[in-house]
Amino acid sequence: MAKNKHPKGLMILFFTEMWERFGYYLMLGIFTLYMIAPETARFAGLGMSNMEAADIYGTYLALVYLTPFFGGLLADRFLGYRRSIYLGGLFMAAGYIGLSIPNSMMAFYLSLLMIILGNGLFKPNVSVLLGKLYEKPEYEHLKDSGYNIFYMGINIGAFVCNFVAAWLRLSYGWGWAFAAAGVGMLVGLVWFAFGNWRVPEIKEADKISPARPGDLSLAKIFTVLFLPAFAAAAIGWIIPDNIFGSDSNDAFIFFCLPVLYFFYNTWRTADKNEKAPIAALLSIFGVVIIFWAVFHQNGSALTYWAQNNTDRELGPKMEQVINTIASTEEVSTVPRERQVVGLHGEKLGTEVGPSYYFDNYNKELPQGNLEGKPGDLTEKEWEKVKGSSTGKFGKLTLWPTELQASINPFFVVILTPLVVAFFTFLGRRKKEPSTPGKIAWGMLISAVSWLVMVAAAVLSGNGADKASVAWLFGVYGVITVGELCLSPMGLSLVSKLAPRRIAALMMGGWFLSTAIGNKLSGVLSGMWDLFEKKSNFFLTNAILTLGAFFIILLLLPWLKRVYNEHMHH
After folding, report:
1. Nearest-angstrom CA–CA distance, 144 and 394
2. Is 368 exposed, middle or buried (0-12, 13-18, 19+ CB in 10 A)?
3. Quick one: which of 107, 148, 459, 542 has the most CB atoms within 10 Å?
4. Model confidence over 143-156: pLDDT tens digits?
5. pLDDT score, position 364
6. What DSSP element (H or E) covers 351?
């Protein structure tokens, strides 16, 4: 009789991952805001243009999804899973804490590198370890629900962290918020160490798998795949002038060419019975790139939209609520010097004016009697104004921009059980779509979600007015349903279709397609300022996603056939 009790290790890994994602998403939620915050603000940012920030954001996200490919291989053949998790966690904690060092671009880039390397060692190996816990026959039938519970842990971490980030950043400055991400990571590691001591089955699951005949050795993967890729990336970075808009784009695209050739070659030289499943996976990887390119704009384009185009004003009741769980942001109409930036990030000098928030504010400007210094002014600016004409200027209380990053995990936690229940209901009636079918539905739903933002942009006069916050809930609510149909299904498809001897390699391919999509998300968001009509920006996203949906639709009969012939449970 099968027991319905999950392995004890699940709770250990659940909280380890929850704390790790707390730090990861805390940093992502404020990353763009920190880069575009002016150097003159009360808590100085890096003063970059939207375009520069989107480029760094996209590159960082791409690399964070690229390193798990190495990390997985290293742990599989060499380090073991637990050692990789400890090492990766320490690297990431060091990187987050390093980001809190002010005024040093050297520290900024080194810290990002530490996080990227650490994530590569940490991310794939917690999930693999979880899978290994379920390999015992008495747990096997619970594997899917185990992964669902685990996914919820990720999203609880992602939901909570933005409130902590907002509170620390607005009360004590950026450094404290970044350091909190590092502390969260360390808490996760301490919990993991405690779990290893209390739950012996984690140690038992951590076995280095012997190489199977026909497996590519690490040295071979390195020489055939990564040496050419890194050489190409270096060439792309060094070429004078840019082919694709920025050095990082050139390097990344050059890097991908040998890798794409490697995967093509894997398919070409495979046995006859492996060709179809490999081709099916590669075609899905290709299409999914577009999903990630639009989905991961939440940290760039949608952050810009939330900051500048969303009505973030709070009434007195909500002000109390936000102040209890995070911190509110204050903007005032007091004039101060502001940097004027051109469309391509060129600095055009300074002007004097109220907070950026009032640029498209079409209600009556707030008036009041300012006694204390409003939150968005530095001491210097306040000194300048204080003597002259205080009293006429008013201030508004807003919810902080990064809270918009909590809307997606909030929906994931609420909608996961509903989506799972819906597919179970269809399954009972023999109407459940196949895994490739679910991916197609995910694409279509994502395309529709961008139409929500097109409507938001049109109705707010394309940025002339502030739009309601309800639109952000709308776009995230719809795209989360798309994500739940697509993201877990992709992972499940790889594990069902990939030939056993190259399973790790094909999982790497899934992460690679995510990485390429993330890089593109930065490229697309970098064009934010170039679109006079924001509705056209969102429409571009909708059309791209719809195109990807039609490609999957055309491939669907073939994908289903391959899936039914080659699926291994």
Report:
1. 55
2. middle
3. 542
4. 777 887 888 888 99
5. 83
6. strand 347-353
DSSP secondary structure, 450-481, as one string: HHHHHHHHHHTGGGTSPBPTHHHHHHHHHHHH
Residue 139's nearest CA partner among 34, 2, 274, 242 is 2
Amino acid at 265: N
Do residues 124 and 75 touch, judged by C-beta distance below 8 A? Answer: yes
Task: State the amino acid at position 410 in one-letter form.
Answer: F
Which residues on neighbouring strands pair with residue 396, listed in sequence order?
331
| Neighbour tally for 337: CB within 10 Å | 13
Q: What are the CA-CA distances from residue 421 to residues 6, 426, 503 (Å)?
A: 20, 9, 29
Sign of CA dihedral 85, 96, 163, 469: negative
3-class SS at 269? coil
pLDDT band at 21 (very low <50, low <70, confident <90, very high): very high
**Is the pLDDT confidence value at 216 over 80?**
no
End-to-end CA distance of the chain: 20
Taking Cα atoms as reference points, which of 242, 212, 217 lies closest to residue 74?
Answer: 217
> H or E element: which one contains 483?
helix 470-497
Which residue reads 């994908």 in tokens?
559
Q: Which residue has the tokens 């210094």?
A: 373
pLDDT tens per residue across span 53-101: 999 999 999 999 988 888 888 888 788 899 999 999 999 999 999 999 9
Query: Rounded to whole angstroms, what are the CA distances from 470 to 310, 404, 540?
Result: 9, 11, 22
CA distance 309 to 453: 11
Which residue in 39, 40, 4 sits closest to 142, CA to CA?
Answer: 4
174 close to 27: Cβ distance less than 8 angstroms: no
Six-digit token string for 382: 């306040």
Query: In this structure, which amino acid lies at residue 491?
Result: L
Burial of 520 (0-12, 13-18, 19+ CB in 10 A): buried
